Automatic annotation (TrEMBL):
SUPFAM superfamilies associated with the record: CheY-like (SSF52172), Nucleotide cyclase (SSF55073)
GGDEF domain sequence ranges: 405-536
Domain of life: Bacteria
CDD domains assigned to the protein according to its UniProt record, in alphabetical order: GGDEF, REC
Keywords attached to this entry: Phosphoprotein
Lineage, top ranks: Bacteria, Pseudomonadati, Pseudomonadota, Gammaproteobacteria, Pseudomonadales
Catalytic activity: 2 GTP = 3',3'-c-di-GMP + 2 diphosphate
Name of this chain's protein: diguanylate cyclase
Matches recorded under SMART domains: GGDEF (SM00267), REC (SM00448)
Every Response regulatory domain range: 122-240, 249-365
Enzyme nomenclature, EC number: 2.7.7.65
Any GO BP: cell adhesion involved in single-species biofilm formation
Length: 536
């Protein structure tokens, strides 16, 4: 992805926070407007919401929202804390709210994409029960999915023709007949070259015949009897993962400039992130700076051979398992075998067929990533494990020092989690851990690191973030997470977390962790469900 489009995505992501906050302001105003005589308790809430709006809007450079918020704040200074709201003030505030409404509205009218509240392609719901569809949409929105529900097969078909969804969640009997949902999907898939992944649900029919038919028309999942939203969202998350696969980082070392250029073009065309060097002496710097996932090495170069370079690469623990692929006009099998025995993984003979090259890179890359994942990720949540989180923290401290940038570290711990396990069972507890991890992934920046620090403890590393901003971000996540309705069978409940946050002050990672931990303890002692920033 180019820098520009990355920036644009980031901008859209943050624009969403501003528009969400504008909605909070407008909702609070609505309560005051509905009953001005009883408005007093809402005054401070409105002021806090408007203040937050202005801060967000300034930070994310949405000037019109910032101006509208400023105006509201100024008018609020004239409405004293324990006075009634005069008609004049009410009128003035109403005008400012209108201005805010207008700029929220106008942006989306002018340009359907910006600010785009959600980043992914939509999820379509075709459920027999409208009410559960509405509930599902709400839950999906919490996780940043854009979802729409359809009432009839025709509506669903029309929507798919307009825009292909990420996945469809459909009842087997959607449309009325016993398996009319499957017929609809069979028909729908004929219109698309690549099938849409489908999640089927049924309360009545779990027979092998029905399951087979569902699976043949793209049914990736078959839930019988129907499941709760929590489980479904996890599934939906897995089908949308394809969208977010990072391009492979491939380092190419070839002394021929023309050959290197050719490789670069082929790799970039295949959507990979290529870094090309032509001087073998640059290899150490390139490894450090680019941190490749796959290395392509020319066999013969002036000054040294690819095999020698491979040996040097393998001497560093960090790059022990990075796949190395040799490139050469060499077609002597004996020499190739010798090269492989010296730490290479594969051999491609020049001239390399681009298709073959890309296929090899994909295979090697996928395998390397899954091996790496075993080493550095937690299997329940897919987040970084404890050891790797600490390693990343060390790295970010080095970077913060070099670049003279701020850095924050947060520890998150679920509140009364033991009780959740005791009441609803361990599997539901596990699901909550996964749901929080998805929630964090969804809401933090790509450059932030999220780790599972321990059982029900998570760690966030927020590079280039000032403590006040970190606190706002984590607080917003905390608020939203606490609103999320968790389901266990037909019981519903909510879960909260507490957080301790520390800003790096030139100290060691250990001391930073300890300060965050102490702040977490303060949050717990203060009644939980809050964020504490460690004192300077
Ligand atoms: P507090 O608000 O003080 O943090 O209370 P708590 O109940 O969350 O804390 P406590 O340390 O007493 O209990 C943590 C619980 O987390 C106990 C343990 O069973 C549960 N837990 C830890 N790891 C896992 C896991 O992987 N899955 C599940 N389901 N539960 C876990
Ligand atoms: Mg806990």
């Amino acid at each position: 992805m180019s820098d520009e489009s990355q920036k644009e995505k980031l901008r859209q992501h943050f624009a969403r926070r501003v528009t969400t906050q504008a909605r909070v302001v407008l909702d609070t105003w609505q309560k005051i407007h509905d009953d001005p005589a009883q408005a007093q308790p809402y005054r401070n809430a409105l002021e806090a919401a408007a203040d937050k709006l202005v801060r967000y809007a300034r930070r994310f450079e949405m000037e019109s929202h910032a101006r509208a918020g400023d105006r509201i704040l100024e008018q609020l200074t004239q409405w004293h804390t324990d006075a009634a709201l005069s008609t004049d003030h009410q009128q003035a505030l109403e005008e400012s709210m209108e201005a805010l409404r207008h700029c929220t509205q106008r942006r989306s009218d002018e340009n359907n994409d910006a600010p785009h509240p959600f980043r992914r392609t939509p999820v379509y719901l075709a459920l027999a029960d409208e009410e559960s569809a509405a509930r599902m949409i709400k839950q999906l929105e919490f996780f940043g999915f854009r979802a729409s529900a359809y009432q009839t097969p025709n509506e669903l078909m029309a929507a798919c023709a307009l825009s292909k969804p990420e996945t469809i969640l459909i009842d087997i009997n959607f449309g009325g007949g016993a398996s009319s949902g499957i017929s609809t999907i069979e028909h729908l898939q004929e219109q698309h070259d690549t099938p849409i992944p489908i999640i089927f649900m049924s309360d009545e029919d779990g027979s092998i015949e029905t399951r087979l038919r569902a699976s043949r028309c793209g049914g990736e999942e078959f839930f019988y009897p129907a499941v709760d939203p929590g489980q479904l969202i996890e599934k939906i998350e897995t089908y949308t993962h394809g969208n977010t696969v990072e391009p492979y980082r491939v380092l190419v070392l070839d002394d021929s400039r023309a050959q290197a250029k050719f490789m670069e073009t082929v790799l970039k065309k295949a959507g990979m992130n290529a870094h090309i060097i032509t001087d073998p002496m640059q290899i150490i710097t390139a490894l450090e700076e680019f941190s490749p996932e796959i290395i392509l090495l020319d066999m013969y170069m002036p000054g040294c051979t690819g095999m020698e370079i491979a040996r040097v690469i393998r001497q560093q623990d960090k790059f022990h398992s990075v796949p190395i692929i040799y490139l050469s006009a060499e077609d002597d099998v004996g020499k190739q075998l010798h090269a492989m025995s010296l730490g290479g993984d594969d051999f491609l003979t020049k001239p390399v067929d681009p298709k073959h090259l890309i296929a090899t890179l994909h295979n090697r890359g996928r395998r390397a990533r899954s091996l790496l994942a075993l080493m550095i990720r937690d299997s329940l949540t897919g987040l970084f494990n404890h050891t790797h989180t600490l390693y990343l923290l060390e790295q970010e401290i080095v970077r913060a020092r070099q670049k003279d940038q701020p850095l924050c570290f947060a520890m998150i711990d679920l509140d009364y989690f033991k009780k959740v396990n005791d009441t609803f069972g361990h599997p539901i507890g596990d699901r909550i851990l996964r749901s929080l991890s998805m929630f964090l992934k969804q809401r933090l920046r790509k450059t932030d690191h999220i780790g599972r620090y321990g059982g029900e403890e998570f760690a966030l590393i927020l590079p280039n973030t000032r403590p006040g901003d970190a606190r706002n971000v984590v607080n917003e996540i905390r608020e939203r997470f606490s609103e999320l309705v968790q389901e266990a069978g037909d019981r519903q409940f909510k879960v909260t977390f507490s957080c301790g946050l520390a800003a790096w002050q030139g100290d060691s990672s250990q001391s930073l962790c300890e300060r965050a931990d102490r702040a977490l303890y303060v949050s717990k002692a203060h009644g939980r469900n809050c964020v504490t920033l460690a004192e300077e």
